[in-house]
TrEMBL record:
Signal peptide: none annotated. It comes from Streptomyces venezuelae. GO terms for molecular function: acyltransferase activity, transferring groups other than amino-acyl groups. The lineage of its organism: Bacteria, Bacillati, Actinomycetota, Actinomycetes, Kitasatosporales. SUPFAM superfamilies: Acyl-CoA N-acyltransferases (Nat) (SSF55729). It holds the Pfam family Acetyltransf_1. Keywords: Acyltransferase, Transferase. This is GNAT family N-acetyltransferase. Residues 5-159 form the N-acetyltransferase domain. The keyword Transferase applies. The keyword Acyltransferase applies. It comes from the Bacteria.
Amino acid sequence: MGMSVTISAAAEDDAEQIFKLQYLAFQSEAELYGNYRIQPLTQSLDSLKAELATDTVLVARLGDEVVGTVRGSTDEDGTGKIAKLCVHPRLQGHGLGARLLRAVEQELAGTAETTRYRLHTGRKSESNLRLYRKAGYVAVGGRTASDGVELVILEKDAGLPADYAVSA
């Protein structure tokens, strides 16, 4: 009998599994850009533990294994910032990333006066861009990260449903 994936708040004990998953899941992004200095690969375990203490951090579990994660926080102007959404490579393409995105949006909406959500991804990351557009995010700008990767900044009104798709 198969197990189902559950999404819940991360615990302090999850730090090492999240750290290892993040390193594994972002390898394909690093390869896409020919750049292994991207922030998810260079983040320290201590820095991740600090995020666990201050941010909304969700994990997707398959049994006891962390197979997905996402982080979020809301700033003083009501922007829910979503970061480091990742899914284990063997489970990618099955909707788990979309489930994690919806879950972090719901958590952020429930913790503060969140008026919009903002996230970013690499300009060449077509599968990520597809996921975010399908969830209702639209490009609002871009920037170059400190590691040299060209990023697309996307936003979504917090009043839109998680599965809202903008027609092109």
